[in-house]
Amino acid sequence: MNQNTFAPLILSALAGVSGTAFATQYLTAEQAQQTIFPEATSFKPVNLQLSLEQMRQVEKLAGLPARSVAWRVAAAYKDDKLLGHVVFDEVIGKFELISYAVGLQADASIRQIEIMTYRESHGMEIKNANWRKQFAGKTASSNLAPGDGIANISGATLSCSHVTDGVRRIAAIAQIALLPAKK
User: Fold this and answer.
1) 83 part of a folded domain
2) Is the dihedral of CA 70, 142, 29, 86 positive or negative?
3) How confident is the chain (183 residues) per 10-residue block, as mean pLDDT?
4) Residue numbers of the domain that contains 34
5) β strands within the chain, DSSP E
6) Does 33 fall in a domain?
7) How far apart are CA 132 and CA 113, in angstroms?
């Protein structure tokens, strides 16, 4: 065989070894907002910047570091009435990022979560509606841990754990920084 015969074989072998070809985008940010708050007539960006004191409060309430000062948030309105907020975040699954959105009622309770992009080869079961429904109605003071209020999924253990941690962090941020009395 000559060199030209080996090149395609080597390239196809390298393509199989490098990079993940499992990324699936389920929803854009705009689609996630509309899915979580279908009755909303408008969404407005919220500039959420946590102070050092708020970051400490989030860590205490969530049992996790606040991780970031700036958060991507959209407020959902029906006409002039605030329905709640959508907070966008990413966590590591096993190796890759999972993008998700958390819908929060105006009282900071969780309305629903949506998986926006899943990049792992395993663990896509967290996209299942029954798993995601477990979060509805929970708050920062609820049991928000795999095996304690949230079921774990065999084969998706790290995805379950990391998304649940992220949701718990966002619930604490909502309690500390998004409730009207807290602003």
Assistant:
1) yes
2) negative
3) 49 44 84 98 97 96 92 97 97 92 97 94 88 95 87 88 96 92 48
4) 21-182
5) 24-25, 42-49, 70-78, 81-92, 97-105, 110-118, 145-146, 149-150
6) yes
7) 6
